[in-house]
Amino acid sequence: MPPTFFCFVKVARNNMSEALQDIVVNELDSLGLELFELHSRGTKSRPILDVRIERKDGAKVTVDDCARASRAIESKLDEGSLVSTRYVLEVSSPGIERPLRNARDWSKFIGRDAVVTAEAAGEEPELSSREVRIVGVEGDAGAEIVVLEDAGGAIHRVPLAAVKKARLAFNWKR
Predict the structure, then answer these.
(1) Per-position DSSP letters for 65-124, written without gaps between them
(2) Which CATH number fits domain 103-168: 2.30.30, 3.10.450, 2.50.20, 3.30.565?
(3) pTM of the model
């Protein structure tokens, strides 16, 4: 039987992640930015904190936005003892081939190309890493359908819940 203290460590780590996320979200909010993604990797003595940000106004994230966010988050982390003093903080945008995770993301990028992997749903066949154009998002919250157009002009209506993986596609020729 494993020692009891392993459960305590897991709970403490989750609390640390929540506390870290709270700090990041609060600091970004005051700068007109929002958290897209937060990952913690590395070791306990030298954690690497990877923070992906977006602008609340929908504009593209700039290097200055990343620098402002980094300074604000760093000052809060340096005040406390949440992470080791030897942490590495990386702040960036979600990138040109950013993941599409929710209806808001899909709506924001209507007209753009995406690489989508989705399970078969209803009459729609499975999409396996297929590049498509985002045409629209239909349906009520929690039951959204993404409308996609493939290279042949065929329209696919895929329940958002059936999408396994999706990201924007960058094409050099356009």
Answers:
(1) HHHHHHHHHHHHHHHSSSS-TT-EEEEE---TT-B--SHHHHHHTTTSEEEEEE--BTTB
(2) 2.30.30
(3) 0.73
